[in-house]
């Protein structure tokens, strides 16, 4: 049984096939590939985009969606993950999409159920569909010519599952990554890195990926204030001037901390395109995992 727990679960050629399929799905027309299938979503951690994106994707493919309300589920009454998994499995879904604050939960779940499990984000560990939709957005923008494109990943990289999934996936496709963060947000890395976001870096970049400060994952306050962080790392017009590049962000954006209001309106900011592309990518992922398994 194949699952999508990390981006490593798909080979490069499978990723390109997903992109070809996702491109078709951008027309937003309903399909019936997953008619008669039922998909369960169980999100133990908050989500705005990812949950609705997966549910739209499932419905656009004709599937039924059962959303488990975690606040009312038995896990809040002390049920173990194994028992929750066994009960979910007994309902015979065709796929389960799970998000959890603890790294590793989707992997554990996948070992206890009889259907594909898709990781909707687990702790700091991984967010594979976000990385797939980010790469798809880059791939579409540069019309497939992505090898040797240069990306700056800026922000709380150490605590970001989006960063770790993107680092794995984008490197595999020959994209040159530079990590830009203050020391306490910088992971141990062999990648090029900078503690400053300066004009020289921007001058040499084709893509900037800005990330939110993951305050919910900080054990202690690591930056005096988000305003101080913004002074050094907020993407603003002074910094990017008229440089030809694209700007990505997985959302939710902290305006004027991650990205300024002016830049949010800029043509180069593809944040809403990422959201649209996300539904198409998730359609391609669900179709592949459910029909090819
Ligand atoms: N939405 C992304 C995630 O779930 C990014 C973020 O929350 O900053 O990881």
Automatic annotation (TrEMBL):
InterPro entries: Asp/Orn_carbamoyltranf_P-bd (IPR006132), Asp/Orn_carbamoylTrfase (IPR006130), Asp/Orn_carbamoylTrfase_sf (IPR036901), Asp_carbamoyltransf (IPR002082), Asp_carbamoyltransf_Asp/Orn-bd (IPR006131). Carbamoyl phosphate binds at residues 49-50, 99, 127, 130, 251-252. It comes from the Bacteria. It catalyses: carbamoyl phosphate + L-aspartate = N-carbamoyl-L-aspartate + phosphate + H(+). Its EC number is 2.1.3.2. Coiled coil: none annotated. It is an enzyme of class 2 (transferase). L-aspartate binds at residues 77, 161, 212. The keyword Transferase applies. Keywords: Pyrimidine biosynthesis, Transferase. Residues 148-287 form the Aspartate/ornithine carbamoyltransferase Asp/Orn-binding domain. Pathway: Pyrimidine metabolism; UMP biosynthesis via de novo pathway; (S)-dihydroorotate from bicarbonate: step 2/3. Heterododecamer (2C3:3R2) of six catalytic PyrB chains organized as two trimers (C3), and six regulatory PyrI chains organized as three dimers (R2). Catalyzes the condensation of carbamoyl phosphate and aspartate to form carbamoyl aspartate and inorganic phosphate, the committed step in the de novo pyrimidine nucleotide biosynthesis pathway. This is Aspartate carbamoyltransferase. The lineage of its organism: Bacteria, Pseudomonadati, Campylobacterota, Epsilonproteobacteria, Campylobacterales.
